[in-house]
Amino acid sequence: MTQLATPVYRIGLYTGIAIVVANMVGTGVFTSLGFQVIGIQSGFALLMLWAVGGLIALCGALSYGELAAALPRSGGEYHYLSYIYHPIVGFLSGWVSATVGFAAPTALAAIALGKYAVSVWPGLNAQVLSILVVAALTLIHATNSRAGSRFQVVITLVKVILLVAFIGAGLVWATPQSLTFTPQRVDWQQIISPAFAVSLVYVSYAYSGWNAAVYLAGEVEQPQRNLPRILVSGTAVVLLLYVGLNFVFLYATPLSKLAGQVEIGYLAAIQIFGFAVGRLMGAVIAVLLISTVSSMVFAGPRIVQVMGEDLPALRSLAVVSRQGIPVRAMLLQAFLTLFFIVTSTFEDVLLYAGFVLSLFTFLTVLGLFVLRWRQPHLPRPYRTWAYPVPPLLFLALSGWTLVFILRDKPLESFLGLLTVLLGAGIYKLGSRQVSKE
Fold it and tell me: Transmembrane region positions (predicted)?
């Protein structure tokens, strides 16, 4: 393998948008509504939940667009936090993202893919299928960046077409439920209720991935121009899809059938098309999740690569192939993903990692203000639209969610902070080794 200064293949606008959309549209939108309707019985409040989650993601994308244009290097939060605050802050962000932030959600999507496929073809082994999908997609992306990018665009386009078709079919053929979607006085009370805050945590997880393109910014063609467009366009597309999907889920399916259930898409499809055709929803969602797994396999290793470029102790993970692909970092993420699939312990990991992942995103958007204050003359090809409203709104809503998680999930938050402390210890050991050399 050979270390290259610049990658051979550059990621274009549409590939970047496809990566963002594919990262966002995963298991969350098909599984979380059943838990939301337990505490919220208002159709308007439930749709507002997804609208507010999308607003948070869109404000984050607008804020990240300025950072991505001013600091166009792969690595995402790792790069931004290292530059704005201190290298150890960036390392801790990269540590959490590299070990849990990508590998665990990739495993979650792969396992969900296997389960949905088995609902259609009972003879399949769900775990074996999950492993084969991760291995095959890793092979595709590790072999050829151009082929991997084209595959990502095609499979994501299929995903969007299928979702739009499902929304359209639901509006035309579904039997409307008695639920009302126009705001009533009691609905506003539900929006400021603890149940709304709880559900917003899970909705935020469903929207996670809106920042996916910044992890491979160094490989994007004309990053100062394209990165903001990629982030905002991809997030806006998903916001519309999510609100439309959840409207159809609620419009077509009684709340009593949704409450506490996981396979929301499957249940809604049965209500719209009948049992025989509804079973095929499992196959459709399985196809959609291939795109999600693919995008995470593509983007995640770039964090490890950039960390390896900066830290001598991880230098071997920065090595790229002749085509500029971080194969070693990709294989490391694949190993962690397969470990989570085989052990099935990643769900607990996601609970406690959610707090620290949100914390570092909060610090990154806050860094937009810090960078403008410290370096007002830094070239900014793109400036956040309507600044400072989007970053302030993001910080307010995300901060509210963080406080709630810390108060309501103290054990998971504490374990997440322990993960950060472990990363700090590794950083200190690596620094000492470098100083001795």
Answer: 12-38, 44-67, 88-112, 124-142, 154-175, 195-218, 230-252, 264-290, 325-343, 349-373, 385-407, 413-430
Residue 15 has pLDDT above 70, yes or no: yes
pLDDT for residue 372: 95
Most trustworthy range by pLDDT among 49-58, 203-212, 317-326, 339-348 = 49-58
What is the rounded CA–CA span in Å between residue 194 and residue 196? 5
**Would you state the pLDDT for residue 370?**
95
The pLDDT value recorded for residue 152 is 66
Q: What are the angstrom distances between the C-alpha of 11 and each of 302, 350, 392?
A: 13, 29, 31
**How many Å apart are CA 148 and CA 330, to the nearest integer?**
13
Do residues 329 and 75 make contact, with C-beta atoms less than 8 angstroms apart?
no
Rounded to whole angstroms, the Cα distance separating 27 from 38 reads: 19
Residue type, 278: G
Which of 335, 41, 305 lies closest to 181 in space, CA to CA? 41
Report how far residue 181's alpha carbon sits from residue 374's, in angstroms, rounded to the nearest whole number: 46
- Residue 269 pLDDT: 84
Per-residue pLDDT band for 368 (boundaries 50, 70, 90) equals: very high
How far apart CA 212 and CA 189 sit, in angstroms, is 34
Residue among 163, 173, 156, 154 nearest 243 (CA): 163
DSSP letter string, 263-299: -HHHHHHHHHH-HHHHTTHHHHHHHHHHHHHHHHHHH
d(CA 316, CA 273): 53
- pLDDT tier at 122 (50, 70, 90 boundaries)? confident
DSSP string, 144-171: -HHHHHHHHHHHHHHHHHHHHHHHHHHH
Q: Please give the distance of CA 424 from its chain centroid, rounded to a whole number.
A: 24
SS3 category, 11? strand
> What domains can you pick out in the chain, each with its CATH number?
13-378+387-431 (1.20.1740.10)
Among 155, 152, 150, 218, which residue's Cα sits nearest to residue 8? Answer: 218
Q: Give the span between the Cα atoms of 293 and 72, in whole angstroms.
A: 25
What distances in angstroms separate CA 153 from CA 13, 110, 157, 230, 292, one per listed residue? 10, 19, 6, 13, 12
Token pair for residue 404? 């709630």
Other Cβ atoms less than 10 A from the Cβ of 322: the count is 9
The torsion angle over the Cα atoms of residues 69, 75, 80 and 83, rounded to 10 degrees, is -110
Asked whether the predicted pLDDT for residue 90 surpasses 70, the reply is: yes
From the list 54, 24, 73, 71, the residue with the least C-alpha distance to 368 is 71
